[in-house]
Structure prediction request, 659 residues.
Amino acid sequence: MKKILSLLLALIMVLSLCTAAVVSSAATSSVAPTVATAPGLYAHAYSKGEADTEAWVKWYEKDDTLYFFMPAATDAKSIEIYNAYEDDAVFNGVTIKSKTSEIVNYEEGKEYTVKADGKDNNVIIMRSSAEGAMFVNNTADFDGMNLWDYLTDDKSNDAKATGAILDDKGNIDTTPIKKIKGRGNTSWDADKKGFNVTYDEAVCFGTMQKCKKFSLISNFQDASLNRNRLLYDLADEVGVPYASDSRFVEFYVNGEYLGNYQVCEKVDVGKNTLMPDIDDEDYLNYVDGTQTNFEFVCEIDAGPDEDDFTVKAGNGNNLTMKAPELEKGDVNYSKVQKFIKSKYDLMYKRLTENHELVDAYIDIESLAQVYIINELGKNWDSGAGSFFFVYKPDEDGKYKFYASPVWDYDNSLGNAQGVEGDLDRLGIDDYEEPTGWFSKYKNGYRGPNFLKEAVAKCDALNEMIPKVWFEQFVPAIENRLNGTGLTDTELYSSDVYYNYLDKSADMNFIRWDIIQEPQWIADHTMLKQCHATYEYNRYGQIVGVNYSQDSNYTFYDEYVFDAEYQYMIDWTNSRVAWMSSQYIKDYTPETPVSDLRGDADLDGVVSVMDATEIQLDLADLIEMSDLALTLSDVDDDSQVSVMDATEIQLFIAQKIEEL
Prediction:
């Protein structure tokens, strides 16, 4: 009898295990999601069974199919579903009672028939590849509208919210949102809109620095989703001051999926912002006579808002102030305006009169870097709008302008057709192509185009541009963007960006149809690619460029993310090749500070410090320059190793006669 009972118990356990392998029907959290105020099914984006109420996703209907668009942190095999209907729901064999949740096993992309709301529903669960997710929740009634409708009804509307930040590892932050409101000019007219978000406390997205203020960029008219990110990261890689860091996230409002967004540090000043060392109240020290200068941030702006603090420069440029931001009626309004105008006018005069000390008024290196970013992208607005300056003291305490931060590049890297009338007047017929100049010819919107005038009239800038191009930009693109699996620097390799976007783009372009009408978008179906190989001297410096362009077109599928992304990368590399072929005639590398074999620290002598320098580099405590690495390879085996340090030590000890 005991044997029979034992066999029966064993059989029951086996059957239970087999059933558990298909579905798990144990009830989880009885706490309703914050956003489950309307009938529907909601999926938990966070860990299964956790008592989190903020990171929940409501299913979304498109073409008679219901989708759960889930972040990367969602488990790939099972998911927690909450039933906000009055009747039971059945999902993949699991019954989910009203106002409760259950764990359901699933396969990504597989279509399920789900019984809910008294009918059969076709349901697909998709899972993102993006770096994180942002949830914004406020289920209050906003004049008869939900939060999304209220925010998008008028760009000036703002709201508080609860929410969650979720990274791709499942780490969650539920810091409340102090304010969310709309942002953008042209982008605001699109259905997929952008926003500015301010948190109560500083937060971070993944490995970004902690920050309180972020901009959510919709990239609605960039089918690659990556033009802004690539150029922001490239600017950061080459050292442009205050280049905004960013990440790809899935964005949800009250549980509704709104697509792939680029969350980046908002252009703002003060503690826990993009520019933490800039004080927006520094002007008060000027007003009360404590100091004769003060820090400020301004933008050449084609379309300022009515209530913006603006300054009309002597050349006609309209400057919108980002810091300080004074209101009309402020007792210091006119005095601050006058000061800013005087500093900008003097800087512009020195720049355009080719003053020999122009670098005392504007940092020429940052201006060269930002010019290159705009010219590389053939950015439609380059120098005419969304063009920022920071006025602050340099390392010697002398105030000057810096061209920074970079901003707004979705209409770049082969993505804009331009306005035909403007192009005709400029004599440009290859704007969509990776060849030909643009930024040096682009007209301004109000007053002159700053970059056009600077390139036309400032010798110091024109001398700096080829140097910055070959010593900063080309190595970054060749060694970083065109590498593989690189995430340890500011600019990632192109395959990494693609992997972050791949599945996220699939979700985004179900939620928002990929643009199939011009709307400034160029033809991305064909490209004659350009190519460059580089000649180097013994110090690793570029001394020659071998350039060619294909005689035949490369063709790309129309309205397909993979093809759109590859077109953008190919266009960028083609543009780099063409620009290198043009700049090489004006570039001569500076004579190295040292050409002594073994001089790893480049101080002009070979000493024990050089062996130490190599050891520090091998231990990843420092990063030696290309020149230093070349000089350090004294055993000529094409790599720097402990053997080179040993050989230098033997030379110093006079154990060997030469290196």
In short: The chain is about 30% helix and 25% strand.
